[in-house]
Amino acid sequence: MIHIKTEEQIGLMREAALLVSKTLTEVAKIIKPGMTTLDIDQFCMNYVKDHKATLSFYNYHGYPHHICASVNDVVVHGFPNKTALKDGDIVSIDLGVILNGWHGDHAYTFILGEAAPEAIQLVKVTKESLYKGIEKAIVNNRVGDIGYAIQEHTEKLHGYGVVRELVGHGLGKELHEDPQVPNYGKRGTGLKMKENLVLAIEPMINLGTHKVFTDEDGWTVKTQDGKVSVHFEHDVCVKAGQALVLSDFSIIEAAEKANSNLNSSYY
Ligand code: MF3
Ligand code: CO
């Protein structure tokens, strides 16, 4: 079922999305080699709770952590763990919160230090593809237009692999609402979008093959060829002419540029 939001509800959803952005901004300030993803999990948990919100991933279908931390060949749903992050790692942090009953859910990929040039390029192009998709999230366009735009920019233009098994989604009182938002597809197909439909658009793009598998833990999704994967996610409200992006990368990017342990050379 599709849930169109009122302007008031969009305002509340923006606050939830911004709390995720602010939390990821704090992560951008402190992340460095030697730190563990479990440290980041605990940091995010405390920050979100201090801001009168709850963590939406914890216990979602039994998910056992507060964030997803997906490093290098992990595509999404990586468990935070005690392995120290190292120079050259590509780290996606995905966080969901519930604030005043509304979900915010978005993700950002950080590059630690001197990463491989092809990995840095993948980060750049994946982020670009997210904005190509957002451009299509306007009234009377169809959901397939979003996936088509993302696939064109990543698969067709750069030869990357677009993950098929996992998709973006509607967002609201629930973490996952209709419609599904694939990162691939045909123009002019799928649901026709109405004003104030809120979507989490989240390209998951692999340097090599699009094929993935799920680890024995039942959650961790990895690339079949072991090559790096990148994930960015924004919360987006469909509007006429131009989508309204509820989450905010600009504060994360400012912190990223100020952290000398992070590589932001792709800007
Ligand atoms: N952003 C991801 C999603 O929308 C994160 C979900 S993790 C889970 O699917 F643990 F909550 F499943
Ligand atoms: Co999501």
Report a brief summary of the structure:
The chain is 31% helix and 23% strand. It is an alpha+beta fold.
Number of strands: 15
Q: Which class best fits the helix and strand makeup?
A: alpha+beta
CATH class: Alpha Beta
Shape: globular
* Portion in beta strands: 15-25%
Bound molecules: 2-amino-4-trifluoromethylsulfanyl-butyric acid, cobalt (II) ion
Overall pLDDT: 98
CATH architecture: Alpha-Beta Complex
Oligomeric state: single chain
Number of helical segments?
A: 5
Rg over CA atoms, rounded to whole Å, is: 17 Å
The CATH superfamily name is Creatinase/methionine aminopeptidase superfamily
Q: Could you give the order of strands across the largest sheet?
A: 8-7-9-14-15
Work out the helicity level. 25-40%
As for the number of domains, it is 1
SSE series: HHEEEEEHHEEEEEEEEEEH
Distance between the termini: 39 Å
CATH topology assignment: Creatine Amidinohydrolase
The major pleated sheet works out as: 5 strands, antiparallel
Structure overview:
There is one protein chain. The chain has 267 residues and is an alpha+beta fold. It has a single domain (7-258), classed as Creatine Amidinohydrolase (Alpha-Beta Complex), CATH 3.90.230.10. Helix content is 31%, strand content 23%. It has five helices and 15 strands. The protein has a five-stranded antiparallel beta sheet with strand order 8-7-9-14-15. Strands 1, 2, 4 and 5 form a four-stranded antiparallel beta sheet that branches. A three-stranded antiparallel beta sheet has the order 3-12-11, with no helix packed on it. The structure holds 2-amino-4-trifluoromethylsulfanyl-butyric acid and cobalt (II) ion.
